[in-house]
Amino acid sequence: FEIERGQWNAFVFVLAFGAVALWRRGGTSTRLVSYSMFTLAVHLKIWPIFLVVGFVDLREGCRKNIRRLSWLALANLSLLMVLGPQYFIIYLQSVIHKSGDPNVWLGDHSLLSFARQVTDTPAAGRLLGTWLAFGFFSAWLAVTLVGLWRLKSGSHPLMLVFAVVAGMLLPATSNDYKLVVLTMAMCLLWDSYREPRTRLAWAGLMETLAWLAIAFGYPFVVFSYRYKDAWPTMWKMNTPYITIIFVAVAMLLLLRPPDVP
After folding, report:
1. Which of 50, 90, 112, 173 is geometrically suited to a Cys-Cys bond with 163, CB 3.0 to 4.6 A?
2. 256, 157 in Cβ contact below 8 A?
3. Cα separations (Å) of 209 from 9, 56, 147, 249, 255?
4. pLDDT above 60: residue 1
């Protein structure tokens, strides 16, 4: 069911990751194709915008990276204006409205939907959702910047998986079928597994615990809420388990030695 309903997300995942893979190969024509693939992915679904980090390589210098990201942003904004500014404004208002008022059902794994379902009143739900959103974006931005500073490249597998897991916690504009993408990201994550290599015993222990947390959290994500009737509402949803994976991948990203591929 999830694969069938999430087929557009699977297609977008392949487009976005294929774009990053092509970009890493270098060459002007190859990179133009990769930019086109990424732009198409972002216009089909919004969440791939997190994967723009894959086009950052600090070894090329900050100015070159800023120019590349600016051209990508300009290209995407220009395509949104194809039908005219009024349609862009309508589209933007629609996205903001639907994102701020997510579907409140157990199958939605966004932080805002989670906040609405674990609180007693709409006002409390909005307040909790605001704080969760603030904490989430702050953590995502901080970990992404530190990860780039340490690894120098946004196309590192851990950076890309972290971006995908972050996208899972965003509110959907319709019924949420993004989980198929998490399955594909987990394959990439486990393929990047390396034995902990650090001189600090506590860091090696934390890295091992992070892998165990991922191994614990992911099975509960694919275990449907339909079979969790007797569970507390909070644990029926996938949001807590995806959050555990989000924190665990962040730990791996911050603990991975820069010289380990």
Report:
1. 50
2. no
3. 30, 29, 19, 11, 12
4. no
What would the DSSP string read from start to end of 149-176? HHHSBTTSHHHHHHHHHHHHTSPPSSS-
Contact indicator for 153, 159 with CB cutoff of 8 Å: yes
Cα separation, 257 vs 163, in Å, equals: 19
pLDDT digits (tens, 9 = 90+) for 133-174: 899 999 999 999 998 888 888 888 889 899 989 988 887 655
Write out pLDDT tens, residues 34-46: 999 999 888 888 8
**Which amino acid would we find at residue 98?**
K
What six digits make up the tokens of 10? 């699977």
Q: How far is CA 105 from CA 6, 109, 153, in A?
A: 17, 9, 38
Of 119-133, 169-183, 191-205, 240-254, the range with the lowest mean pLDDT is 191-205
Beta-carbon contacts of residue 129 (< 8 Å; ≥ 6 apart): 111, 112, 115, 116
Q: How many CA atoms lie within 13 A of 257 on its CB side?
A: 11
Sign of the alpha-carbon torsion through 109, 110, 113, 117: positive
**Residue in the block written with tokens 């890309």:** 160
